[in-house]
Recover the amino acids of this structure.
């Protein structure tokens, strides 16, 4: 990343909440819930994988496509059958995503600096120095 790219920088953080273990791997809503799966791979090792709530919706996936993609993400290499999907332990959760632009960060940093009683402006943040 170059200094010229900083004005176009955005940073997002997702706060994950409301974790619920469910009995049915289809018991979640695309675009509403993030999901974390736990499964035993073909070598007998426990594996996990997760997608945030927006992933399936952004990709245009349904429940099965999302589960199958997560299995591959988690390293499952064997053929995926409906019987295998039923062995998955699924946890659904919700997420609150916060996004801040670099300009918003600088404004917040400047405001916070003045609130703390320091009367001069901060120099621009420069981690290159």
């Amino acid at each position: 990343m170059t200094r010229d790219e900083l004005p176009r920088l955005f940073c997002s953080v997702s706060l994950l909440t409301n974790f619920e273990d469910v009995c049915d791997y289809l018991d979640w809503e695309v675009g509403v819930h993030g999901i974390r799966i736990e499964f035993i791979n073909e070598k007998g090792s426990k594996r996990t994988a997760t997608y945030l709530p927006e992933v399936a919706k952004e990709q245009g996936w349904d429940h099965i496509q999302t589960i199958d993609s997560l299995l591959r993400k988690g390293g499952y290499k064997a053929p995926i059958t409906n019987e295998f999907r039923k062995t998955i332990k699924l946890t659904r959760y919700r997420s609150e995503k916060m996004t801040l632009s670099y300009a918003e960060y600088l404004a917040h940093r400047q405001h916070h600096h003045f609130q703390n009683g320091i009367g001069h402006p901060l120099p621009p943040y420069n981690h290159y120095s």
Helices lie at 53-59, 63-73, 82-85, 102-115. The chain has four helices and four strands.
